[in-house]
# Entry
Amino acid sequence: MASVLSALITRGAGARDSRALSLALDNLGVDRDESVGSMHTRFWGATLARNLPAALEIYADILLRPHLPQEEIEAVKALAYQDLQGLEDEPRQKVLVELRRHHYPPPLGQDRRGTIQGIESLTAEDTRTHYRRLFQPRGTILSVAGNIEWESLRDQVERLFGAWEGGPEPDLRLGAQPSKRAHIAKDTTQTQIALAYPSVPIGDHEYYAALGAVNVLSGGMSARLFTEVREKRGLCYAVWASYQTFKDRASILCYAGTTNERAQETLDVTVGELKRLQEGVEPEEVERVQAGLKSSLIMQQESTSARAGSLSSDWYYLGRVRTFDEIQTAVNELTPTSIVEYLHHYPVGNFTVVTLGPKELEFKE
Amino acid sequence: MPFHSHTLKNGLQIIGETNAAARSAALGFFVRTGARDETPDVSGVTHFLEHMVFKGTPRRSALDVNRDFDRIGAHYNAFTSEENTVFYAAILPEYMSQAVDILADILRPSLRVEDFDMEKNVIIEEIGMYEDQPMWSAYDHAKRAYFSDHPLGNSILGTPDSIRALARDQMYSYFDRRYVAPNIIAVAAGNVDWPKFVDLIESRCSAWQQGPVGRQGVRETPGSGAFQVLTKGKVTQEHVFLISPGPPAESPLRYAADTLALAIGDDSGSRLYWALVDPGLADSADCSFHDYEGAGSFYTSFSCEPGQTQENLAIIHKLLREVQRKGITEEELQQAKSKIGSRVVRGSERPMGRMQAIGMSWIYLHQYRTVDDELNAFDAVTLKSIREVLDRYSLEQVTTLALGPLETLSQKGFNGSR
# Structure
């Protein structure tokens, strides 16, 4: 539903039909993208600073006055259907989609691509109902970064969105925890392995320790997973772990893609490394993690797109924007002890394991 | 932003664009060697060598290389294309001397046999990973079909067999011939102390051997005109590429070619978007212009439900024929230009973006080009220059490749055979 709506919503809004809308944004040189995540639909655009006011006028139309035209629904559904089919040709993405589906209770783990039946039964009227229920000012965040004038931006946004009314924020009811094991049989060259286990959400006092832990595993090419799985054993090309947060829960997701014959060994070595972390972390490893996080933080400042993204993400998760110094201080305070303590509070285990390939693998917790 | 250049006695060139206001610095070594410079007996050696460069030197083990980079928080990697191998790092300015020390050291790798044998596994995994991605696989096969016996058709990764058959000494002899100082450019951008950078490069790279540079087989090609259907029963969607000739990297027409490709096949608001994606006939459709030394080509592609492929091909053919005959409109030209303008500006926000841009411009044109030079060049594109591209390189002269479940496709209407 959300994906179909996000594709339909730009097909005409305000005084412009689908083509006129696209043309207007193109004439302003707006590079853009609409995407659907677990919690939000995101409208992203980038353009030269002088075109910002005109672009915002168009986005106000899209958000507040979309046509959601009946005659476009079949085309949008056809695209959604193909998007879902196309996932079958992307085994690396497929395994991660299935990992989230098995790791989180629904609807948290639901993929934006939905299901065939879901797409087939959708009507334009359904998207309008969904739009009215969920597109509202409460819970919507607008972030802008770059060469802007705050006063005039604020006044313009007040004028464009100030009268936008909406009901209460809809509540989210979670379903039952799905099965934490799955194998997708597919005749592929490589076996895809995906694992997940719990961590602490952003905002938790151990958040930076969790970030430190995942970076010891996967922060750079000298990090443990790359070194042990790829460099020393040559088991794969791609192996990584990353941190994913919601407001109330978080996880470490881990991926490896490997030739079928070596898949069992890859899984065993990878899980071994994840567990070994609890036994201790070297000061040298923490120093490398700190150096990596520091330079990422500074380089992020150099991209307006990345800045806009982190503004809205902080605002959503924390209700405020962290300063550079705050993050820097927290990163500097990381120690081997703080990381190991976090791992004692949240031991590596209780895995969700999803594999894709010709043969199922053995997994012992 | 000031531009600087310097050449060492052994022929290694150093260039840089410095910007004291930048928070980071980027540096790279551009080696002018790629898959097109390989003979069939060493297919895949350039890319394999790129991996081996990270495997250490007499001073550093493979683990030392990764650790030393990570200690300074560098964002580093390398890539291999048809004609270049580029090693690069983005760093905080205070770590420049360490970064040069590591990068320059690893550019003279030991190529130890045990590392060589272990890394073969990783390369074969990388080949397997791409094999499982039909869109990529279709691109690779289409490129080979188009270039046929032209060296630009050489596979970058090679095959599992060609990689298994490679001997360490074959790689060494390729390295010895291609990684000579005059074939390498050291590039820096961002917050860089230029005299210090030159001193660092000089002290680390002056002993690198000289040798002859250049490459064979630099010529344009209209493409083979082949029409191939590769049947892969396990693939879900049909993935199709149509490749036609375009101007080479050193041609001033490349700006018009880029603009034309964007008007035909950008992911929003383009001709292909309205013809295939908007009505839901294909889940993706794209046209991009790729330029190489001495040759260039337009890659038009789409993926769709297999049963829709034939009709989509007919739509694309009609669309390309129409553009070939009538060109694009003034309005389409202006949209394409404004899109390119904002992409060029945002692509140069970071020193890493500038480092790549000035490095490539130096390699292909031996020219320094500012962001404004690029913007002005795109701004100067007219319907007339687009017409010139079309007159010299026909969009209808296509080589076609489809990869997916389909067993056959009719090539009626292509390459004039109606």
Chain A has two domains: 2-161, 181-357. Chain A touches chain B through 71 residues (CB under 8 Å). The mean pLDDT of chain A is 95.
